[in-house]
């Protein structure tokens, strides 16, 4: 069951899943060739700077962006549930993402990127966009989550901050995926004021990379 509302050209749709009520905020391209679905992390929502920037930029390039809020976030809870529950919520949202018949790129930031990687093959995702993939907990490189990333099974782009405590670009293992570094960026792609690039330039690195990558997908 879904419920749809429209505000200033942006469509919000609630979707019932086995993990609770989720919400999809649509930013539609006029002549869409792909849908990019992006989930949020465990510590924030779809207002993250990278997700907002993609929603603003991608539709002009033929990519409809769907910002996905997991049920726990819609319910107003402050702590994300276990990965298994996040996967259940994502699976429940997928039919709404795929209903247009267009190829769907599964994506997300941090925990949302992990969900996209874990479920990509099962759900038939066209590709995976992993923003700030949490390769390991801060200070614990031995607890690697590389297996999730390497197991995505579809074309994958990782966009990673150069100073991300959850895994710097040079820590990532070799594999069949593309990786773009956001210089000086932390886990939220924030850059310090002393950095050689501005915050707007850092965000542009993200959007430019995703525009180019999605344009290359067959």
Automatic annotation (TrEMBL):
Q: What is this protein called?
A: Hydrolase
PANTHER family linked: TESTIS DEVELOPMENT PROTEIN PRTD, TESTIS-EXPRESSED PROTEIN 30
GO MF term set: hydrolase activity
Q: Which residues form a coiled coil?
A: none
**Lineage of the species this protein comes from:** Bacteria, Bacillati, Actinomycetota, Actinomycetes, Kitasatosporales
Q: Which InterPro entries match?
A: AB_hydrolase_fold, KANL3/Tex30_Abhydrolase, NSL3/Tex30
Ranges for domain KANL3/Tex30 alpha/beta hydrolase-like come to 31-213
Write the record's keywords in alphabetical order, separated by commas.
Hydrolase
